[in-house]
Amino acid sequence: MSGILAAGTHRCNNVSAAVSAAVDAGVKWIDTAPNYARGMAEAPLRAVLVRHPSVGVSTKVGFVPVADRRAAINARVLFGEQSRRGHCLSRQYIAWQVDLSHARLGRAPDLVFVHNPENGASTREEVLRALTSAFEEMETAANTGLIHGYGVATWTGLSSGMFTVSDLVSLAQRVGGWRHHFHAVQTPLSLVHLGLVAETLRGGGPLQQAREAGIRVFTSAPLCGGDLLGMMTPELVHFIDPSATPAQAALRVALSAPGVSRVLLSASTPAHWADAVGAAAREPLPLEHLRRIIDVLGT
C-alpha cells in the first residue's frame, strides 16, 4: 500500500482508548495537537508512548487551547488579537507551547507541525512572513533536542495556492540551511478532496513536489470525520472495490494516492481499526482506476 495508516486524535472522545486500540492493531504513528479533545489530547498519550517507545508521535503549534489561554497570557507569550483569535505563531508562543507539549508527551515529538498558518492571513506575503518566524523557532527547538523535526499542517494553504511545498522547502533552506529540519506536510485527502491526487496523476502538484524534495506527506480526514460513510452507496463501494466495506473503499483511495506517506485516521474501537488495517493490507488501487474514480467524482 502506498500510504501507511496512522492514528489521528482530532475526533477522539477517549484518546487513550482510541490510540491504544490503534497501536494494538499495529499502527506505528500517532498524530495529535494541544487543541484536540478540548485541550486534553496530548497528556493521555504519555502512557501509551512509554509502553510503545518505537511508536512515532507528531503534535502541532498554532491554535491556542482554551484550557491553556490564561496560562499563556500569564506567561506573557500571548497578547491581544492573537488571544482573541485563539491562534498564534509568534516565536515566544511557539517556544512555550513546544516546552508544554514535550512535558505532556514525556518525550521529544518526532514532528511538530505549524498548524494552519493561513489562519487569519489575507495575503501570501503575510503567511510566508509568519512561517519564516515559525521556522526559525522550530530550527532552534530542533537544534536543542526539544523536537526531532517539523512540518506544516494546513487545511487550505496548499489547495488555495497560498503557498506550495516548494515554497516551504525553500524557506526551510533559507532559515536552516541544507541540514534543515523541515520534514513533512499535512493536508486533507479523501473522496471529496481528490484535487491532490488529480494533480499528481497529471505530473505536478503538492504530492509530486514533496516526493521530489524528500518531504513526507501526512493526509488527514480520509472519512471526513465519519460524514463520508453516509455517502458511500453500494454502487460507489462496488465501483471502488467490490470486496471492500464502505470504510475500506473510502480509505483505499486515500491509501493509494501516489506520494502519500501516512493517512491519519481517527477511529475509536478495535473493530474499526481491524477494518482499517484490512484496507491498508491490500495492494494500492491502480493509477488508471484512480483516474476513473476522479472522472466520476470530480475533485
Radius of gyration: 19 Å
The stretches of 5 or more residues where confidence is low (pLDDT under 50) are none
- Report the sheet with the most strands, covering strand number, pairing sense and barrel closure: 8 strands, parallel, barrel
Helix content: 40-55%
Q: Looking at the structure, what is the overall shape? A: globular
Q: Provide the residue-averaged pLDDT.
A: 95
Which architecture does the CATH hierarchy give at level 2? Alpha-Beta Barrel
Strand order of the largest sheet: 1-2-3-4-5-6-7-8
CATH topology: TIM Barrel
* Tally of individual helices: 13
Q: How many domains make up the coordinates? A: 1
CATH superfamily: NADP-dependent oxidoreductase domain
List how many beta strands DSSP finds: 8
Beta-strand share of residues: 5-15%
CATH class: Alpha Beta
Termini, distance in Å? Answer: 22 Å
- Give helix and strand order, one letter per element, not per position: EHEHEHHHEHEHEHHEHHEHH
Structure overview:
The chain has 299 residues and is α/β, with parallel strands linked by helices. The protein has one domain (4-297): TIM Barrel (Alpha-Beta Barrel), CATH 3.20.20.100. It has 13 helices and eight strands. It has an eight-stranded parallel beta barrel with strand order 1-2-3-4-5-6-7-8, surrounded by six helices. β4, α6 and β5 form a beta-alpha-beta unit. It is globular and about 55 Å long. The model has no long low-confidence stretch (mean pLDDT 95).
